[in-house]
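Board notes (copied after class):
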Amino acid sequence: MSEIFATTGTIAAIATAIVPQQGSVGIVRVSGAEAMQVAKTLFHAPGKQVWSSHRILYGYVRHPQTKKLIDEALLLIMQAPRSYTREDVVEFHCHGGIIAVQQVLQLCLQSGARLAQPGEFTLRAFLNGRLDLTQAESISDLVGAKSPQAAQFALAGLQGKLAHPIRQLRASCLDILAEVEARIDFEEDLSPLDDKRIVSQIESIATEITQLLATADQGELLRTGLKVAIVGQPNVGKSSLLNAWSRSDRAIVTDLPGTTRDVVESQLVVAGIPIQVLDTAGIRETEDQVEKIGVERSRRAANAADLVLFTIDASQGWTRADEEIYAQVNHHPLILVVNKIDLVDDMQINMLQSQIKQIKSQIFTAAAQNQGIDGLETAILQTVRQGKAQAADMDLAINQRQQAALVKAKTSLSQVQATINEQLPLDFWTIDLRGAIHALGEITGEEVTESVLDRIFSKFCIGK
């Protein structure tokens, strides 16, 4: 059995980020049958404070043998079933930093708890019926959200907005299966099955699945974000473009070519989509060994990017060097950024446009003057969404695992329709109906394997 399934006993872990000299509070969480005993062993609450559920006690954490004072703290008590895991849970709210919380955790482990596996608190919440699998995954999404919109989608999943339609679809499939099996077992006692009605119900279920599948691209963008590389010759204004876009001085800007020697990163959010922007060194042939390394890193960054912003200098026009760089990056989704348009007149722009007409997506900017950034963001969103299915009026987004399960369910339903059209016996109908039911159950956790749970919860942080 997978290590993540070793959910017996009492577990403990640090539930907050631990950073030296930062964070005013650090929390040690304990869950399980012995949680209260661990708390009473370690925590001294002066006076007549009442040890009951959903109370916060003030006091001290002491070493149980030496009675040495470890920290002044608060103790939060949440007894089963009114807790995150539906087990007895206690939390030691200590001073932040490293030492205090580490010492308290070690005392908890010495007092009978064991160190929690990644995601084990949430796994126990799932196994104890506190959460379904979509809600558990939404918790992970919420912790890792890179934008407010991603957080809102995660909250929608946590509130059951994905689980509810999935359960309804599964219930509809179960109803159809029950009706078919009843005809198999009691064919002589029941009226003939209405094939057309069954086909209509299956088509309706498949349509709803298609609508849910349309949220997959949006969900992937919100969760993983977009990697955008700014590439071009030296001194075309790549760093100025990054600085204007990020509204900060992340990159050094001078008139000297080759100033950027390494890849400079900036994190942005555009229309709810997290974007990692990479300002790369200018691509050119050079004898400078340090610059050569920067150029090679630029090429690697461009190859790894989801989108390339190929930047040229309007005052220099479309040069042979630009042509060579374009040949290296044009296999990627690409936007041509014509920068420094404040240095040219209309005649020069018209001449340049005739040279670059083969590139469909073009944006004209004057990065040093903060001009054209809004148009650049619009072009990026248009490029990203080209060919993507749009999920209209839906405030949820499925992940890759859920997408795979929905695809399996839809494929099974298509097989049921084919079976009906070929007028095969009812027993054949049930095979693929059960396949669809199983696939839908995988999403919420009604049908789940150890390997699936292991894959999901191993991605959680320890303490969650």
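Comment from the instructor: The CA atoms of residues 180 and 205 lie 17 Å apart. The first strand starts at residue 11 and ends at 14.
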